[in-house]
Amino acid sequence: MDRRSFLMTAGVLAAGLGAPVRGLAAPGSVALPAPATPGTRTLEEALKARQSRRDFDTRPLPADVLSGLLWAACGVNRPEIGKCTAPTAMNRQEIAVYVTKADGLFLYEPKEHGLKRLGEADLRAATGKQAFAATAPVNLVYVADMTKVAGTTPDEKIFYAGADTGFISQNVYLYCAAMGLATVVRASIDIPTLAGAMGLPGTKRITLAQTVGYPKA
């Protein structure tokens, strides 16, 4: 395998190959800074380091690391055609990434590479039944718009929503492995309670949550 730096295969994050640009956030959103990159770590090294961890330090993620995390998850890597780092069936792009932090609930906007604040309440504890969810700096919540997801039957739609979420989650895993972050994807969620706290309509379905932070020393 050609040993190029991890994520370089998709384009250098800060060098005009679909990289996010500051100052393009939509009204009501905050533009994210240029993403932090993993330097010279290769894809093979990231794959070897990929693991689930449940020991999280409480210190917040720097803005550029959060920026890189979200871009890796499902950011736009081919702006000329609006395509993203994670595939979706029929390019429906139906999975939204919500970000819960101590200072509130946010929605990641891939096209603008920005964060839209949706509320000021700390919902981290509601994102999972595990104790660490309440104190880890970031919990991502993946939400499928069931009006957009591919498929003609309810079972097909659930299948595609789950598969498309998995692609995003694995992108997060690899970014975390490359950056020395800890992460774990989780399905142990009180979904009705969390959906209510997030103000989600019935057409939007929580598929998974994923905790991210620095590993506890």
User: How many domain units?
Assistant: 1
Content-based structural category: alpha+beta
Fraction of residues in β-strands = 15-25%
Tell me the number of strands.
9
State mean pLDDT (0 to 100 scale): 90
Structure at a glance:
The chain is of the alpha+beta class. It has helices at residues 43-49, 63-74, 154-179, 191-198; strands spanning 29-31, 76-78, 83-84, 95-101, 104-109, 114-119, 138-145, 182-186, 204-213.
Please tag this protein with its features.
NADH Oxidase, two-stranded antiparallel ribbon, globular, alpha+beta, 4 helices, seven-stranded antiparallel sheet, 217 residues, 24% helix, single chain
How does the SSE layout of this entry go?
Elements lengths: L28 E3 L11 H7 L13 H12 L1 E3 L4 E2 L10 E7 L2 E6 L4 E6 L18 E8 L8 H26 L2 E5 L4 H8 L5 E10 L4
Antiparallel strand pairs: 1-6, 2-3, 4-5, 4-7, 5-6, 7-9, 8-9
Helix pairs in contact: 1-3, 2-3
